[in-house]
Specification:
The chain has about 750 residues and is an all-alpha fold. About 75% of the residues lie in helices and about 0% in strands. The protein starts with a helix and ends in an 8-residue tail after the last helix.
């Protein structure tokens, strides 16, 4: 494995994704350089004079301009398409950077400083909307979970570089060189965007979906659309934006008061920013996906407002007992922790939440959250800060008070957001149209089963005769109808047949009939059938059990069967990796498909059946986005190890990689890698005839193991009989002195 492959594996990048991730990383890096240099230029000027008044004023003006820019962006995104509007956004950003350069060169007033800060915020918004809009349609929900933190880490080293430059820059003439560099970086980002457009279709395409059953109230749909997920995300974004703006303001103002000299202020701010962005880079690349896997979406989302509340509570203690130095260290630590959490953990995960939405709705929701509600949060913070700056003796306490209230509000909204996210995932993989029942049609045979009281019930022998009628093609339809009408009256004989009959075809048909008899005894017989080592019988039982709701009392049984199937999948994969025979490899692949189907059947008895059924249809769907939504829903529903095993079976990756993943989940398989002896030993209770035939062709029996072929000689399947006979003949030819056991 090369160094590049190891690095990609560490970051969760698959080989076919390497070039795309590289383009997005470079794109974000260039945007980050441009944006942070404009940010440095704006703050150098704003911190020179009266920042308590000028910063809130800049926040308010910037918010108004951002809302206007967001509305313009949304209009053109809808009418021009994403690819064309993304190019125009970068051209507009280049032009706006030139305007800011003129303001830096000729404007030294407060109005010019506020205009420069507002210009920075508009540039940040437009580049953010452009970058994440393109990312949202190129990557599906599963890729976004793995890769959003990677592609968005490109701006972290760029911002760290800009923060270092802030330490060195103190004069307006130097700022012009920064803006010129930003100008070049945006042009570079435009070229990378065009290269991305040549590699991918940057277009929002949405497949038709069913109407949402739980939607936003009609009065709010004009502002948020029909999705409750978008509603809670927008409101939580407003609260988070207001809190982060307040903490940024408190940090800058306290630094300004602590270090009166402008060069010292910028040196301290630049050092903190550089450390912040470097830490965020490490967290994004190495820890974000692991944190998401361990804490889940809800825990990861709540980490930011939860940390803010803890930090604000700590201020109440330090305010009475801490020195000026400890308070300065506190503001620095609070700002650093908030920025690292927001950039490295919260933002990538928050953006993933948009992915289950239809593509066009996804872009509209993202533009709404980032282009309207985030600026509204900044405007709210700017208004409160500006109103309080005339009362410096109370402003800090009141600022921390309203920040605590908004952080608590964000905590509640984000807690509810996760539930809406799961609902969107289910909606994304559900059927487009609900099935319509024809009048008078029995549902799952239950209506037919309920009419037994209106007919004469035959005795046990008569019912047995009907059951035997299932074996004859001519009498099967009549026998099936009669047994369905008898329902519970025929159940004792049906369950007895499941336990005693050696006829596999009959057992499958009887199991299907038991599935249409909604009685506890029927379910118990099917659960007992599912526990048998014969996997064909297990499949028949699981198909019939789809008509029953899960029972918590049976959960331990099905969890044990899940582990059995996972172990079998591991053995099959190991066999695939160990054999070079294409026929046997193809047969083992088919056996793995059966394992997948049985796993979904078992999951139907452990989790909400409708969700699992939708997920099963989704992962089998040809559309990549629907597959990804189905996998993401499973990831949030079933235990993580089980999901990882199921995902491995569904992934299109080399067999050796699948074996490695299963070994990491379940531990190495004892007893060697050859699966051929196991196939011969278990025979028809576990494998299809073609797999057994391929295995017999590969098997090299010894005098101690050749007896295992005897049951296969008496198989009713001609293919297995022929393969078993050929194996014995081959063995006799290679060992002529052994007395024939036939």
């Amino acid at each position: 494995m090369t160094l590049l492959e190891r690095w990609q594996q560490l970051l969760g990048i698959r080989p076919d994704e390497g070039r795309t991730v590289g383009l997005f990383f470079l794109h974000n890096f260039l945007l980050g350089i441009g944006t942070i240099l404009v940010y440095v230029s704006a703050n150098v000027i704003l911190l020179e004079n009266n920042p308590e008044r000028n910063l809130p004023l800049a926040y308010g003006v910037a918010a108004l301009l951002m809302i206007g820019a967001g509305k313009v962006y949304a209009h053109y995104e809808h009418h021009l398409g994403l690819q064309r509007v993304a190019v125009r956004v970068l051209l507009a950003v280049v032009a706006l950077t030139g305007v800011l350069g003129v303001l830096v060169a000729v404007g030294h007033s407060v109005a010019a400083a506020v205009a420069i800060m507002a210009g920075y915020r508009v540039i940040y918004l437009l580049t953010n909307l452009e970058f994440w809009g393109v990312s949202a349609v190129v990557f599906d929900v599963r890729q976004s979970r793995r890769l959003f933190s990677v592609i968005s880490s490109g701006d972290m080293p760029a911002k760290a570089l800009g923060a270092v430059l802030a330490i060195l820059i103190h004069h307006h003439t130097d700022l012009l060189w920064l803006l010129l560099t930003a100008f070049g970086a945006y042009l570079g980002a435009l070229l990378v965007l065009q290269a991305t457009g040549r590699s991918h279709v940057v277009e929002a395409r949405s497949a038709a979906r069913a109407q949402r059953t739980t939607a936003v109230t009609p009065g709010l749909q004009r502002w948020f659309g029909s999705s409750r997920l978008v509603l809670t995300m927008c409101l939580s974004m407003l609260a988070i934006a207001a809190v982060t703006t307040g903490i940024e303001f408190s940090f800058f103002v306290n630094v300004k008061h602590r270090f009166h000299d402008q060069s010292e202020v910028m040196r301290y701010v630049g050092s903190v920013l550089a450390l912040t962005y470097l830490l965020a880079l490490v967290f994004k690349l190495l820890l974000t996906s692991q944190t998401l896997d361990r804490m889940g979406f809800r825990g990861t989302l709540l980490a930011l407002p939860g940390t803010v509340l803890v930090g604000l509570g700590l201020y109440a203690v330090l305010q009475t007992t801490g020195s000026d130095d400890s308070l300065m260290l506190y503001f620095c630590g609070l700002f650093l922790a908030l920025e690292v959490l927001r950039r490295a953990v919260f933002d990538p995960v928050f953006l993933i939440l948009f992915q289950p939405l239809p593509a066009t709705e996804r872009l509209q929701a993202h533009t709404l959250a980032k282009g309207v509600y985030e600026p509204l949060g900044m405007a709210l913070a700017g208004l409160l800060l500006f109103a309080l700056h005339t009362r410096p003796e109370f402003s800090e306490q009141l600022t921390f008070g309203w920040m605590a209230v908004l952080a608590l509000l964000a905590l509640v909204l984000l807690y509810r957001t996760y539930g809406h996210y799961l609902a969107e995932l289910q909606h994304a993989v559900s059927r487009r149209f609900a099935p319509v029942e024809e009048p008078g049609t029995p549902v799952n045979g239950h209506a037919a089963a309920g009419s037994a009281k209106d007919q004469v019930v035959p005795d046990s022998a008569g019912i047995q005769a009907l059951i035997m009628g299932l074996t004859d093609k001519a009498t099967r339809p009549h026998a099936t109808d009669q047994l369905l009408q008898l329902g519970a009256a025929a159940l004792p004989e049906l369950t007895s047949t499941l336990r005693t009959s050696p006829d596999e075809a009959l057992i499958r048909r009887v199991a299907q009939l038991c599935g249409h008899v909604p009685q506890p005894a029927s379910r118990e017989a099917l659960v007992e059938l599912a526990r048998q080592p014969n996997l064909f019988r297990r499949e028949a039982a699981l198909r019939a059990l789809r008509n029953f709701e899960p029972r918590p009392a049976d959960a331990a049984v099905f969890q044990g069967l899940v582990q059995e199937e996972m172990r079998l999948a591991q053995q099959l994969l190991l066999g695939q990796a160990a054999t070079a025979n294409p026929g046997l490899q193809a047969s083992l692949e088919y056996e793995l498909t059966r394992v997948q189907q049985r796993l979904f059947g078992l999951l139907l008895q452990l989790y909400p059946p409708q969700i699992i059924a939708d997920a099963q249809r989704g992962v089998a769907h040809a559309a990549r986005e629907r597959q990804a939504n189905a996998l993401e829903m499973l990831d949030n529903l079933i235990p993580r190890p089980l999901y990882q095993g199921l995902q491995t079976l569904l992934d299109v990756v080399p067999v050796a990689e699948k074996v490695r993943r299963f070994d990491a989940l379940l531990g190495p398989v004892a007893g060697g890698a050859s699966i051929v002896p196991s196939i011969v030993e278990r025979g028809e209770v576990a494998y299809t005839d073609w797999t057994i035939s391929r295995a017999l062709d590969q098997w090299r029996p010894t005098p101690y193991t050749v007896g295992q072929v005897l049951p296969l000689l008496h198989s009713a399947n001609p293919l297995i009989q022929q393969s078993a006979t050929a194996t014995l003949e081959r063995f006799g030819h290679n060992a002529p002195k052994i007395i024939s056991i036939c």
